[in-house]
User: What shape does this take?
Amino acid sequence: MLALADYNFKRGSKLVVELVNGDILEGTLYNGGKSRLDLINIKIYSSDYSSKGPYSYYQSEIKSVRVVKEKPQENGEITNGECYIEANKTLISIPKEDYEDLILMTKNYIYLPMIDVNYYSAIKHLKTCENLGIAAITNSYDKFDPLSLLVISSWDQVYIFDIQSFGIPNDLKDILESNHIKKVCHDSRLPWGILKNQHNINLNNIFDTLCADISIQEKTEKDPEKICTRSIGQCFQHYFNFPENFMNIYKTSKWGKRPLSEQRKSQASQLGAYLVYLKNHLERIMFKTFFETSSRFASSFRIPCNSNSKIDGKLILDIKKKLSL
Assistant: This one.
């Protein structure tokens, strides 16, 4: 059982609280004691509910508590998150600014139920993006079920396309099939299968965060039997120490019901909002040696007075060795 007396939270800290009933909320610590937390500026993740508070949450109601850290990790060190989290079990290991941006982006989604000026504005924006998060939602998360919603996220905005209402127009199809825009999915089999089988769309240039996570596990996990497939929520728990039930997959027939409730829209937004952030983190882990070697290569080159500068042959050999070239 969680013992609040074992923690020394500072007043004014932003806390992420996981309740026994499954709800996850964030709030600022206003007061508290050995058996309770008094929070203000409270937001519940699974809905748009918020309150200035204060509200008291007692030890018997709380499953876990985490603190959003104030500053990014120093010196730009790249880790897989595991060692850092082990030493900081109550700390969400992403910068506070990034955390707040992700939460705000989840709440500030743009829902597109028809082809109108907002739709064309979204298309114009998405065409300029290098990376797009893609999440497909059907009634039962089966590739043979009709596509209800297509959630597409850039680094700063989530769009919810109501495919059930207006299908997939050609300009949206062009984005999905583009070889110049990377599509970030978590288990790309579902969106790829749905788009191909139902809409004759070839989803191209895919970065699958599920595959990336497995690849990292294969390189870092000593026991092959412990290698597993993780949901995106479990990835955020593993790499960033988010609460266990931070992101649930909502398998329910209510996704086909119209009009969509605000709660459903918020849940849909959550499935797409975190994909690009996770992709960037996993990419840094996977190419850690390459990035470190590139930095060393750049900083080692000095321009002499004459123009006949040469790169140190020993350095080239060292680079080839590190990158296994």
In short: The domain at 4-68 is CATH 2.30.30.100 (SH3 type barrels.). Residues 288-300 form the longest helix (13 residues). DSSP finds twelve helices and 13 strands in the chain. The radius of gyration is 23 Å.
